Automatic annotation (TrEMBL):
Any Gene Ontology biological process: iron-sulfur cluster assembly
Protein name: P-loop containing nucleoside triphosphate hydrolase protein
Keyword flag Iron: yes
Organism taxonomic ancestry: Eukaryota, Fungi, Dikarya, Basidiomycota, Agaricomycotina
Matching InterPro entries: Mrp/NBP35_ATP-bd, P-loop_NTPase, YlxH/NBP35
Pfam family name, one: ParA
Source organism (scientific name): Leucocoprinus birnbaumii
Amino acid sequence: MSTTVDDTPVTRRLQSVKKIILVLAGKGGVGKSSVATQLALNLYASSPTARVGILDVDLTGPSIPRMFGVDGPQYAVHQSTDGWVPVYADAEAGEQRLAVMSVGFLLKKKGDSVVWRGPKKNAMIRQFLSDVRWGELDYLVIDTPPGRRNAAQ
């Protein structure tokens, strides 16, 4: 039995996402994370009902938790029966419309990074896309790692 594009864990998980926006560039240090952060915040502020997710797949330099102010020990991603539950950057305001997921939440110490390459790195990115429980989102902003090869995969 062949698998169609519409029948993968990633496509099934992302069916409830209306628009996916990739932020990418051919090299590091050019402001991708800053652009992704500002884009997500502006989309969130554009409507009192907008639901926005931001996914940090820059495994070697995850900065999105720090940029959203959710990098302290009180912010933790946890597993549920339906996948990883993202951290909500707006939870203190009583909302759950701004979801954040990053490998930074899974590392033991702030400033650590993942030095995986190739298939292992791509498998982790696929796992983020298939296992994070986003729920209904209007937008999912994806902050990609530097380089054209990794972003294309």
